Amino acid sequence: MAVVAVWVPACGDSLYQSQSSFAGSALLISPDSLIEDEFPKPSDCAVSSFSATPVDFDAVKRFKYVLLETAWKEFATRADLRPAFESFGQEQAHWLDDHALFRALKTRYDGAFYLDWPEEIVRRTPAALERARRDVANQIEQVRFAQFLLFRQGERLKAHARARGVRLIGDLPFFVSPDSSDVWAHPELFLLGAQHRPCVVARVPRDCFNSLGHRWGKPISST
Question: Which of 126, 180, 205, 220 could form a Cys-Cys staple with 19, CB 3.0–4.6 A?
Answer without folding.
Answer: 180
